[in-house]
């Protein structure tokens, strides 16, 4: 997506979903033992039934992805044909591209109104920390200006 955005000459932005995996709903019944610091001393053998996913569960990634992708599709996005973590939305001649990477979201727009609308849409459903322009992603440093996009790993 970074290369495509550079080619199309639009800026990329990054946002992070706070406690993303807690937003994923489990389809199956799942029970966990009481954590050591939260044991009920009157009922030490009782277990907890989970309603939502937790970090560390093998189902957590899938549950979060299913919730987020359904949310995006319900709001007019189309899932990419080749990459299932890529979502597209067009509004007239303008384009919004969203790439999911676990709980990080990078997105690029050809119109600043779409950027603001997308940020507001995501905040209406999820607790977000909007980080602004994309500077660092999966170990890569990204510098964007009006004439070029540079990718490096100096750190």
Describe the secondary structure blueprint for this structure:
Blueprint: H1 2-8, E1 12-17, E2 31-33, E3 47-49, H2 60-74, E4 78-79, E5 86-91, E6 94-101, E7 104-109, H3 112-125, E8 128-133, E9 136-137, E10 140-144, E11 149-152
Antiparallel strand pairs: 1-7, 1-8, 2-3, 4-5, 5-6, 6-7, 9-10, 10-11
Structural class call reads: alpha+beta
- The dominant shape is elongated
Would you count the extended β strands for me? 11
Intertermini distance: 22 Å
CATH class: Alpha Beta
Major sheet strand order: 4-5-6-7-1-8
Low-confidence runs of at least 5 consecutive residues: none
Q: Biggest sheet: strands, sense, closure?
A: 6 strands, antiparallel
Per CATH, the architecture is: 2-Layer Sandwich
Query: Radius of gyration, Cα only, in angstroms?
Result: 19 Å
Q: Beta-strand percentage?
A: 25-35%
N-to-C series of helices and strands: HEEEHEEEEHEEEE
Compute the number of structural domains.
1
Individual helix count:
3
Helix content: 10-25%
CATH topology: TATA-Binding Protein
Average pLDDT figure = 76
